[in-house]
Specification:
The protein contains 9 helices and no strands. The protein is mainly alpha-helical and about 160 residues long. The protein has one domain: Orthogonal Bundle (Tetracycline Repressor, domain 2), CATH 1.10.357. The longest helix is centred in the middle third of the chain and has 22 residues.
Length: about 160
């Protein structure tokens, strides 16, 4: 039972952070789960502990999805990986860390995993280090804009796939 509540808190935190972004808080989490803030802190002694658990959960899921994805078509692979990279960018942009004052170890952990997703994209596409660096600037810039206009994500990601393939 205790593990179920802990897992539920982690899952809902990850979902809320992805969907609500900067609106996410322990207060809103408690309200969504219909539990007290005190209950959240019974399972996680600090926001940092909760954050690490959320990023563990998120990147275990991401890595599992990447490992299970199969397609021979390069465009399909790049489309899938860019969508995953966009999800990851929603979880790692600087504003999240500034709002929650999460410590540097949480930021480093999340950003390190985000970079691993980018490296997988580069590997699939066969980008050289020099080209990968330029492509990352373009993709990250596009995704920064998409955080403010998520409705355009499908069209923009499709355009980026065409550019990378």
């Amino acid at each position: 039972m205790n593990n179920d509540i802990r897992s539920l808190i982690i899952k809902e935190s990850a979902n809320s952070l992805k969907t609500d972004g900067l609106k996410f808080s322990v207060d809103t989490l408690s309200a969504k789960l219909k539990i007290s803030k005190k209950t959240v802190y019974k399972y996680f002694s600090s926001k940092q502990e909760l954050a690490i658990a959320v990023y563990d959960y998120f990147y275990n899921d991401v890595n599992g999805r990447i490992s299970c994805f199969t397609s021979e078509n390069l465009k399909d692979k790049v489309l899938f990986l860019l969508n995953v990279y966009f999800e990851s960018s929603l979880m790692t942009h600087d504003e999240i860390f500034n709002k929650y004052a999460l410590n540097d170890s949480v930021r480093s952990y999340a950003k390190g995993n985000h970079i691993k997703v980018w490296n997988r994209i580069c590997s699939v596409v066969g980008l050289s280090d020099e080209t990968a660096e330029s492509a990352k600037i373009i993709v990250d810039g596009a995704f920064k804009e998409l955080r403010n206009n998520a409705q355009a994500s499908e069209k923009v990601i499709g355009f980026l796939v065409d550019c990378l393939c």
